[in-house]
Amino acid sequence: MPGPIDDVLKHLTELSPQDWVVRGGWPAAAAALIDADIGTISGAADKAIRVSSTPDWLLAIDFQSGHDSLAKLPDLLLYNSALFKRHGLPVRTLLVLLHRGADSRKLTGLYERGFPGEPFDAALRYRILRVWEVPAAAWLSGGLGLVPLAPLGSVQKADLPAVVAQMKQRFDREAPSQAKELWSAAYLLMGLRYESAIVQSLLRGVVNMKESTTYQAILKEGKAEGKAIGKAEEARKMLLLQGRDRFGEPSAKIVSQLDAVTDLARLEALGLRLLHVKTWEELLGANGTTRHPRGRR
Length: 297
Fold this sequence. Notes:
Elements (H helix, E strand, L loop, with lengths): L3 H12 L1 H7 L7 E4 L12 E5 L5 E8 L4 H19 L3 E7 L12 E4 L8 E9 L5 H5 L19 H15 L4 H12 L5 H11 L5 H36 L4 H8 L4 H10 L6 H5 L13
Parallel strand pairs: 3-4, 4-6
Antiparallel strand pairs: 1-2, 2-3, 5-6
Helix pairs in contact: 1-6, 5-7, 6-8, 8-10
């Protein structure tokens, strides 16, 4: 789930990695982030946490807010295997679904890959954390990295002002220097579930006149990021429309690769490259990475 929300969630995970071990249903233990990069393999898990236990193990976390969660399962298997090879520790995988639109009955906690009618060749057991099923109080009582997720938890709209007020109490008491950053995270995450007017009203209700500049900064930052996301979505939609006309219907893998491109300039470069290639695969390159379009001779 690339983009501003992805960056926000990665940062929140850094604030309290041990809380994700507990939220995932495993026993509490000391935990610290490790490098989630998997070297020569394109991509990485959103975050990887080393859990101090007997034996030590790794927790690979992946956040999903889009409708393509099923298409992400092959990646989760890849990340799990690659992290094990790199660090030599057993790996557990946690798939965090941020809202109902990312859910599917086919997300069972077991992914198997193989030939039809034959035993599977590879499999991955993973746990699913559906954020909206966790009471808001549970998010509020965790580390600071969990608190901005409280409005996405199990909460009625009528109770949102009280939830946001409790968030403010924790931010003011425990991290006043990080309050702007945490509110910005909350603003973006709440946009996954609530209309912009509701989010703005809730934030305005907890930020007093003394802090009005902070509120305006949060609002401005959120609007700018929202506009950037909107432009990228339009560019991707046009790319898919033109690509279907030239190459035919893209595979699920191609759609997933395009969804991973969030930079507007890269999408525009793909739009130019589309004029000089003959297939979806050639457009994205052998490794699914973009290349600069060739100029006309």
